[in-house]
Amino acid sequence: MRLPRFEYLKPENLNKLLQMLAIYKNDAKILAGGTDLLVRMKKGLLKPKFVISLKDLKELSYIKQNNENIKIGAKTCIADIIDSNIIKNKAYALFQACQKIGAATIQHYKGTIGGNILQDNRCIHYNQSAFHRSGRGACHKDGGKICYARDDADRCFSTCQSDGATALMALDAKLSLAKKGKKRTINLADFYTSDGIIPFIIEPDEILTEIIIPIKDGVSFYKRLSCRSSIDYPIVSAGVFLKPLQKNVPLEKNTIDNARIVVGAIGRSPLFLSSASLFLKGKKFNDINAFKKASNIAMDNASTFAVHNIGSTTLEYRCSMIFQMVFQALEQAVNLNQENQK
Amino acid sequence: MSNLNVVGKPIPKLDAAQKALGRAQYIQDIKLPEMLYGKILYSKFAHAKIININTSKAEKLSGVYAVLTGKDVPKKMKMGFYKDNPPIKKDKVCSFRDEVAAVAALSPEIAEKALSLIEIEYKELKGIFDPEKAMEKESPLVHEYHKSNVLKLPWKLHYGDVEKAEKESDFIVKEKFKTTWVTHCCLGTSGAVALFDSNDNLTIHTNTQIPSLAQKDFLEALRSMGLENKRVRVIKPTIGGGFGSKLDTYAYEHIAILLAHKTRKPVKIIFDRKEEFKATSTRQPAIIYIKQGCNKDGKLTFRDIKMVLDNGAYTSWGATTPSVMMMPITSLYRVENVRYKAKCVYTNNTYSQAMRGYGNPQATFAIESNLDMLAQKAGIDRIEIRRINQNQPGDITPQGFKISSCGLSKCIDKVEKELKKDCKKQENVGTGIASLIHVGGGARIYKSDGCGVILKMDDYGKVDIFTGGTDMGQGLDNITAQIVAEELGLFVEDINVVHSDTDICPWDVGAHASRSTFVAGNAALGAAQKIKEKILKFASKILDASIKDLILRDRTIFVKDNSEKNIPPKSIAIDKLLRKAHFSPNGTMLMADYFYDPDNENMGKDFKGNMSVTYAFGVHGVKLTVDKETGKVEILDYIAAHDVGRAINPLLLEGQVYGGVVMGLGYALTEEVMHKNGENMNADFRDYKLFTAKDAIKIKAPVIETNDKYGPFGAKGIGEPGCVPTAPAIANAIYDAVGVRIKDLPITPEKVLAALKEKSLQE
User: Fold this and answer.
1) Do residue A228 and residue B695 have CB atoms under 8 angstroms apart?
2) CB atoms within 10 A of CB B677
3) A92/A90 Cα distance (integer angstroms)
């Protein structure tokens, strides 16, 4: 498989980049790390006329902190996030998720957090070579009317497999996007469309510039199940955040004021599970049964979005593992924090 | 033999630096003047009639030099030992990897574009993907001319009296096991460059483990093209992994030949990773029905095995794996009464090939898993039952294998000691062991199991050795150099090993069956001994000493100092001696040739015969823990003890064992080529779950040296054994940890969890 022909552009600042996007729009794709984009191009899933490389762009690589927020530039390398004490201390789930992205080489060499969030949805039936796909009718995501993941499905059942997005949604993150002459900020949860074909809304001339994580006094954790220790997408993942009600009270005696439970790699986007999250409000941090119940609610709610689209495991197994991942994430979030307090 | 200077030393792979610097020449790097690029078009169906092919648009495309379809292939050009596989299919496709057309063009881009312009009209036929169903009468036929989906192959043996032994057994365990498709995952993808000279002689650069046999295949291909009495030169560049995948000749090689002949230009075909996954062959999958019995003392009474092998749509060496499966079936442990029967069945799936272990891992998985179950039923300790039945030096097994040296007992001791170091029983933690037997002294599968070597020395004390043996990364270059250096008192850097070019190197049957160290090693040793004799003879004249008093060491010939006086011994440097020999009246240069063919036997009609001069043994032990919530297995400790005869190079030997074990772990736990109605669904490393560096575990690889009397410096083969008993050792450990037995590979977390659920329902 070879890359289709394209024109290569390399703007040296954000302004120029936005100008280019304003001109080329749909004909252009942005190349940050390329670990997702180039594979898709080789498979003929994308055929941009222009590839705009961010290689020379210095402006979008940073991790900053003020009283309210952590701000991460979209081009920040995964390895820099793993190495950041700010992230480790204030957004632990993201630190964990980044450790799981790709492999050490991808984390260090090229992979960016923006790229991780903006990766397109996957499905084993869709992410095949052009030749493979040409031997059958086109699926929804490929412009057709068939779904190979679920028989007779009237829409696309591809899944979002981003580790970073699942953790960030648990941390209630926001995204900043920019286009020529205009900026907007949107909750990560609102970024998604629940459509597998176009899983999130970013306009053709728009670019993700920044990830904003509100600093809340709470504990977070990211847990994922995968076949191997590197280069695997998760079979299922869970990101959780728990905010205690009382200040200066040890967790084991504290009450949950606010919970955010997010399940990833199952649905078209990371799934924020409001009923399961709400259930934990007012429960004690040491209430294991409440954690179990919340995990069960999470499993029931998230399972409805799951389809058999990764090949190596069945739908049943993936669904049953939702409970495990959520429960383990909740339990370990508390345990880790208790250990840290000691 | 402690006075060895080079043999037994951990000398890094001779071409390691070249490879690390990116300077080794792989097939991808080969570029010839006027070279064209070939590409192959594959089928879009698992089973279909080809109604019409229109190539006119492709032919008209600028830069296209040739387009081939099935009708351009000579009728007699068929691949594989069963001759059922034309390189391009004409009237019908029988699997997704069927080649239907090929082009040669100025660039790979143009070739790819041309493929997309070829229009093919198919009529889809009902496919058959389950070998057991394919044996049923009403099943669609993969090849109508064959009249049955069952291949006509002779895999059937019965030694002793299994039925009588079964009646007399105190304990019997009957089980079904299943293994699936896995693939070699060579990091260097396949490829070939073919060119003809003006007299229609062929040179082909190709990734092969069998230069001499490939030459024979290509000569046959030329004959089918009407080119009689031509020459074929096979050159193998550096290859990025073989593992058995390059033991046959493939369609892409034949297509490169056809395109090169049609265009009169060199044609290069290189696989991309997708193609490598989809269009190269896998390990042979097997459905295994096994019955083993023992008496009250734990002595094995009989072993009865039936297998159904999914042959896929065409036949390569996968269909002959039963001939090696017979080895563990008849000869792993002492068991007098054995019966075995295997059927290879055509389906519309991919077809299989040789892969490290050649059937042995499949058979050993069933035997060793089943043996643990038998031990439990009989109330005998798992390790004890293995000791009771272990092979011993001097044994002749029911198949007629003469066990010369045998370190099985020592391997068991070693593994037991390691596993019992920390004997505190923890929850969900278990241990498991499994043993292996494999050929270790060649394997007489062809009429000859030999290897030729030519050796020459220059005026500077340097050696060029032209060996029939093939280095494919396993380290034959080192082994050859170390053996020759040792014998001639030289250093490894004095030896240049030339291999894998049929114009230069003598005949060899190929790098397979863990035979290279033993056979090519013995051949190199034989040639070195001949040269040594000449050197000593010459030196004895110059130094005025008797031959028996001469020693070759450190590039010098010394006279043994018997005088006890404090004067340095008489000596002459080898290079000086060589020059003296060369530059004197009636001068001579030192050269020698040697052909070593081991004293092993072809199997007879009843499959009896001492296939190998000596046999390799080994035992793997594993300690692991099972996560009862997710079913995930984590390996805590792994020990792979192998009887290697002698380690010529302990560094490379450990590398072979580590690599084998990690390959075995993938086979046991994660790897599977997924097929959906015959179509490969995971043709990349993202979805094909090959172990990554991060998944690799620490492996202890103790070497048990038994100094085999036939091996070069006592060595036996070790190429394949490392991946043979891994899967059953793991399956046995999982049972020990959580009480569930997984009988089909790979042992995924999902299967473990399902078995745990079923177990808790039964309790």
Assistant:
1) yes
2) 13
3) 6
Give the separation between CA B481 and CA B496, rounded to whole angstroms. Answer: 7
- Identity of the residue numbered B509: V
Short-list A18, A20, A24, CA closest to A49: A24
Convert the pLDDT of each residue in B73-85 to its tens digit. Answer: 999 999 999 999 9
End-to-end alpha carbon distance in chain B: 59
| Nearest Cα residue in chain A from B627 | A324
Q: Which residue numbers of A have CB closer than 8 Å to B's CBs?
A: 1-2, 103-104, 124, 128-129, 131-132, 134-135, 225, 227-233, 310-314, 317, 320-321, 324, 328
Smallest CA-to-CA distance from B106 within B6, B4, B38 is with: B38
Name every residue whose Cβ is closer than 8 Å to that of residue B171 and which is 6 or more positions away in sequence. B293, B294, B295, B296, B374, B377, B378
Integer Cα distance of B592 and B464 in angstroms: 11
List alpha helices for B420-467, DSSP H.
Answer: none
**Which candidate from A128, A317, A328 shows the least CB-CB separation from B753?**
A317
Joined tokens for residue B167: 């009646």
Q: Which CATH architecture has domain A67-118+159-341?
A: 2-Layer Sandwich (3.30)
Neighbours of B333 (CB within 10 A): 23
The answer to whether B736 faces chain A, any CB pair under 8 Å, is no
Tell me how crowded residue B88 is: count the other CB atoms within 10 A of its CB. 22
Q: Are B596 and B523 in contact (CB under 8 A)?
A: yes
Q: Which residues in B644-676 are b (16+ Cβ under 10 Å) and which e?
A: bbbbbbbebbbbbbbbbbbbbbbbbbbbbbbbe
The low-confidence residues of chain A, meaning pLDDT below 70, are 342
Query: Using CA atoms, how far apart are residues B62 and B254, in angstroms rounded to an integer?
Result: 25
- In whole angstroms, give the CA distance from residue B254 to residue B73: 9
Domain boundary assignment for chain A: 1-55, 67-118+159-341
CA distance B234 to chain A (A): 28
In chain B, the domains with their CATH numbers are 16-22+450-596 (3.30.365.10), 31-125+237-267 (3.90.1170.50), 282-444+603-762 (3.30.365.10)
Average pLDDT per consecutive 10 residues, chain B (763 residues; last block may be shorter) = 86 95 96 98 98 98 98 97 97 98 97 97 98 96 97 97 98 98 97 98 97 97 98 97 96 98 98 96 98 98 98 97 97 98 98 97 98 98 98 97 96 96 85 98 94 97 97 96 98 97 97 96 98 96 94 94 69 96 94 97 94 97 97 97 96 96 97 96 94 94 95 96 98 98 97 97 89
Six-digit token string for B557: 């010939």
Residue B99, token pair as written in the block: 């080649």
Q: Which two tokens stand for residue B277?
A: 């996954």
Min Cα–Cα distance to chain B from A332, Å: 15
Inspect the interface and report whether the beta carbons of A228 and B753 lie closer than 8 Å: no
Q: Which two tokens stand for residue B183?
A: 């693939």
**ipTM of the prediction:** 0.94
C-beta atoms surrounding B228 within 10 Å: 9
> Are B40 and B105 a contacting pair, CB within 8 Å?
no
Q: What is the pLDDT of residues A269-325, one digit of tens each?
A: 999 999 999 999 999 999 999 999 999 999 999 998 888 888 788 999 999 999 999
- Say whether B670 and A328 touch across the interface (CB within 8 A): no
Name the DSSP class of A146.
Answer: B
Given A128, A231, A312, which is nearest B692 (Cβ)? A231
Q: Which helix (H) or strand (E) holds B105?
A: strand B99-105
**Secondary-structure class of domain A1-55 per CATH:** alpha beta
Chain B hits for A233, CB-CB cut-off 8 Å, are 686
**Dihedral, CA of residue A263, residue A268, residue A269 and residue A271, to nearest 10:** -30
Q: To which residue do tokens 């005026």 refer? A: B459
C-alpha distances (whole Å) from A2 to each of A129, B115, B207, B385, B443 are: 11, 14, 22, 56, 42
Q: Taking CB atoms and an 8 Å limit, are A2 and B693 in contact across chains?
A: no
